[in-house]
Amino acid sequence: MQYGHFDEAHREYVITNPATPSAWANYLGSPEYGAIISNNAGGYSFVKSGANGRLIRYRFNSVTEDQPGRYIYLRDREGGDFWSASWMPVGKPLDSYKSECRHGTAYTTIRSEYSGIQTETLYYVPLDATHEVWRLKVTNKSDKARKLAVTGYVEFTNDPNYEQDQVNLQYTLFISRTYFKDDFILQRFNENFRDPNKERFFGVAGAKVTAYCGDRDKFVGAYRGYGNPAGITGGLTNDLNYNGNSCGALQSDIELAPGETKEIIYLLGQKPEASAAGLISAYKQPGRADSELAELKAFWHGKLNNLQVKTPDDKFNNMVNVWNAYQCFITFIWSRAASFQYCGLRNGFGYRDTVQDIQGVIHLAPELARNQIEFMLSAQVSNGAGLPLVKYNHNPGKEDTPDDVSYVKETGHPSYRADDALWLFPTIKKYIDESGETAFLDYEILFADKEEKASVYEHLKRAIQFSMDNLGNHGMPAGLHADWNDCLRLGKRGESTFVLFQLYYALRILKDYAVLKNDSGYAAWLDQKLADTSDLINRFCWDEDRWVRGFREDGAVIGKRSDPEASMWLNPQSWGVISGASTPEQGITTMDSVYRELNTPYGTMVMYPAYQYHAFNGALMLCFNKGVKENAGIFSHTQGWAILAEALLGRGDKAFEYWRKASPATYNEDAERRVLEPYIHGQTIEGRDSPFAGRAHVHWLTGTASTVMVGTVEGILGLRPTPDGIVIDPSIPGDWKDWGMVKKLRGKTLNIKVSNPGGSQHGVKSVTVNGQTLDGSFIPDSILKAENDIVIAM
Question: Would you list the DSSP string of 1-66?
Answer without folding.
Answer: ---EEEETTTTEEEE--S--SS--EEEEEETTEEEEEETTSBEEEESS-TTT-B-B---TT-SS-S
